[in-house]
Write a structure and sequence with these properties.
Layout: E1 5-7, E2 10-12, E3 19-23, E4 30-35, H1 39-56, H2 61-77, H3 79-90, H4 94-114, E5 121-123, E6 130-138, E7 142-145, H5 153-165, E8 169-172, H6 178-191, E9 198-200, H7 207-215, E10 221-225, H8 228-240, E11 244-248, E12 253-257, H9 263-275, E13 285-291, H10 295-306, H11 327-342, E14 346-349, E15 353-354, E16 364-365, E17 368-371, H12 378-381, E18 388-394, H13 397-405, E19 409-410, E20 412-416, H14 420-429, E21 434-437, E22 452-453, E23 456-457, H15 462-467, E24 470-478
Protein name: NAD-dependent succinate-semialdehyde dehydrogenase
Keywords: Oxidoreductase
InterPro entries: Ald_DH/histidinol_DH, Ald_DH_C, Ald_DH_CS_CYS, Ald_DH_N, Aldehyde_DH_dom, Aldehyde_DH_Superfamily, Succ_semiAld_DH
Length: 479
C-alpha cells in the first residue's frame, strides 16, 4: 500500500520527505509512517483539483456514473481488507469495521445512480420572445475534511456526491486514521478517475496545510465532519471567501424510553446506539431518559446486558467494544465519570479504565452505566465520546421534550414508544435533524444526514447530499 500523498494522479513523497507515525490504539504499537504534507504540497493539490475541474465538470454524467460504479465494486471486493486495516489504525471491532465499509460503499453506489439524475428546469416565460431555463452546475473544487471515528464512510459520504456532481476534491483525512483513506484512494485510482479529480493530503499537524486550503480562492466548497468548535472556525475562515460549507458537527443525542415501549427492544437499542464504536459517534445516545415508572426495570435489564459486553482488541473473536482512539479520549471519559460521581450520580457498572492483561498499552475503558444523573454534571453538558451511558428519570412527555431540546446540539434523537400519537408529537417537536423511532441506527445512504442548531449546516445522503455540490444558474434567452 502507498503511504504517500496523491496529487494530480501521482503518488509522491511530501516536500522534504516528511513523515509521521501511525499507531494502533489497542496496543500502542507503531504501524507505519505516512507522508506529512506541507503548505507547498497543499498548493499543488489545490492547483491540480482546479485544473482537473475544467474537464471533469464537463464530463458526461454517464461517464462519471461508470467510474463511481467501478469504485463501488472495488470497495466491496476489498471490504475485508479495508475493515482489517481500519481496525488496526482506529480500533473498532473488525465486523463493525466491515459494516462501516459496506455502509460507505452504499454512498458510492447511490451517487453512481444519482449522477445521471441531475436535472434543470424550463420556466414559463412572461414574453413570447423569451425562454427561461434553470441549470444545475458543479460548485467547483471541494475540500473534504474527514474524522477518525468513521475513516471510510465519512470519505465516501462526502466525495461520492461531489464527484457525481462534477466537482473535484482534495481530501484531508484525520491524522489518526490516514491508512483507510489512502487505501480508498488507491481503489479510486484503480477505478480510473482522471488525474487531479481526487487528491489526498495526509498531515500530522494541519495548521499550515489548512491555511492554504481554507484561504485558496480555487477551493469553492468545504465539507467537514468533526467538532463544533472546529466547525465554527471553518465557518469563519470560509466567510472570508464566501465559500459554501457543509458541516456535520457534534451531537448530544437524547434516547427517550416511555413506559409504553417494549423494554427489551429499548435496552437492545440503547446498547446498539451507545456502545457502537465504543461510544465514539456523534449520533450515539448521550442522555438516556427513562420514564420513572419503568426506571428500575430498564436499568436492571440494561445493566445485565452491558456487563456482558466483551472489550478487547478489534481483531479478537467476539469483541464488541474496542479501544478509544487515544489517551486524551480516555482522560475525558474518566473526567466525566469522576465529575458525575462527585456530584451524586450512582455507578451501576463499569467506571474504570482497563489496564490488566490484554489491555496493557491500549486505550480501553469499561462499558459504564451511571444512574441518578442530573443536568449540572459535565456529562449532561458535553459530548463524552466514550462508552458511558448516563440515565435520567422523567415523568411527563412535556418534561422530557424540554430536557431533550435544551442543549445547543441537534443532530440525532431516539424515541421508544408504542403510542402513535406520541410518536407524531415527539418527532415533530424534537429539534434534531435525525429522529429514530424504535430504531437505534437510522442512517442510510438514501436519506439526509445532518443537524439543527450547533450540530451543523447542510445535509449528506440522498438527493439532498447531491444538492450541496451544485450551483443553480438561471438563464433568460430573448430572441
Amino acid at each position: 500500500m502507498e503511504n504517500r500523498l496523491y496529487i494530480n494522479g501521482k503518488w509522491r513523497e511530501a516536500a522534504g520527505s516528511r513523515q509521521f507515525p501511525v499507531t494502533n490504539p489497542a496496543t500502542g504499537e507503531f504501524i507505519t509512517a505516512v507522508a506529512d504534507a506541507s503548505a507547498a504540497d497543499a498548493r499543488e493539490a489545490v492547483e491540480a483539483a482546479w485544473q482537473a475541474f475544467e474537464t471533469w465538470s464537463k464530463e458526461t454524467a454517464r461517464k462519471r456514473s461508470e467510474l463511481l460504479y467501478k469504485w463501488y465494486r472495488l470497495i466491496v471486493e476489498h471490504a475485508g481488507e479495508l475493515a482489517s486495516l481500519m481496525t488496526t489504525e482506529q480500533g473498532k471491532p473488525v465486523n463493525e469495521a466491515k459494516g462501516e465499509v459496506l455502509y460507505g460503499a452504499d454512498f458510492v453506489l447511490w451517487y453512481a445512480e444519482e449522477a445521471k439524475r441531475i436535472y434543470g428546469d424550463l420556466i414559463p416565460a412572461s414574453a413570447q420572445t423569451k425562454r427561461l431555463q434553470v441549470l444545475q452546475q458543479p460548485v467547483g473544487p471541494v475540500l473534504a475534511i474527514t474524522p477518525w471515528n468513521f475513516p471510510a464512510a465519512m470519505i465516501t459520504r462526502k466525495i461520492a456526491p461531489a464527484l457525481a456532481a462534477g466537482c473535484t476534491v482534495v481530501i484531508k483525512p484525520s491524522e489518526e486514521t490516514p491508512l483507510t483513506a489512502i487505501r480508498l484512494v488507491e481503489l479510486a485510482e484503480q477505478a480510473g478517475f482522471p488525474p487531479g479529480v481526487i487528491n489526498l493530503l495526509t498531515v500530522q499537524n494541519p495548521r499550515e496545510v489548512s491555511e492554504v486550503l481554507l484561504t485558496s480562492p480555487l477551493i469553492r466548497k468545504i465539507t467537514f465532519t468533526g467538532s463544533t468548535e472546529v466547525g465554527k472556525f471553518l465557518m469563519r475562515q470560509a466567510a472570508n471567501g464566501v465559500k459554501r460549507v457543509s458541516l456535520e458537527l457534534g451531537g448530544h443525542a437524547p434516547f427517550i424510553v416511555f413506559a409504553d415501549a417494549d423494554i427489551e427492544k429499548a435496552v437492545d437499542g440503547a446498547i446498539a446506539s451507545k456502545f457502537r464504536n465504543a461510544g465514539q459517534t456523534c449520533v450515539c445516545a448521550n442522555r438516556i431518559y427513562v420514564e420513572e415508572t419503568i426506571l428500575a426495570a430498564f436499568t436492571e435489564k440494561f445493566r445485565a446486558k452491558v456487563e456482558q459486553l466483551k472489550v478487547g482488541q478489534g481483531h479478537q473473536e467476539d469483541v464488541e467494544i474496542g479501544p478509544l482512539i487515544n489517551q486524551e479520549a480516555v482522560e475525558k471519559v474518566e473526567r466525566h465519570v469522576r465529575d458525575a460521581l462527585e456530584k451524586g450520580a450512582q455507578l451501576v457498572c463499569g467506571g474504570q479504565r482497563l489496564t490488566g492483561a490484554g489491555y496493557e498499552n491500549g486505550q480501553f475503558f469499561q462499558p459504564t452505566i451511571l444512574a441518578g444523573v442530573t443536568n449540572d454534571m459535565l456529562i449532561s453538558q458535553e459530548e463524552t465520546f466514550g462508552p458511558v451511558a448516563p440515565i435520567y428519570a422523567f415523568r411527563t412527555e412535556e418534561e422530557v421534550l424540554d430536557l431533550a431540546n435544551h442543549p445547543n446540539y441537534g443532530l440525532a434523537a431516539y424515541v421508544y414508544t408504542s403510542n402513535l400519537g406520541r410518536t407524531i408529537r415527539m418527532t415533530e417537536n424534537l429539534e434534531f435533524g435525525i429522529v429514530g423511532v424504535n430504531d437505534p441506527l437510522p442512517a442510510v445512504a438514501q436519506a439526509p444526514f445532518g443537524g439543527y442548531k450547533e450540530s451543523g449546516l447542510g445535509r449528506e445522503g440522498g438527493k439532498y447530499g447531491l444538492e450541496e455540490f451544485l450551483e443553480t444558474k438561471f438563464v433568460s434567452i430573448q430572441f
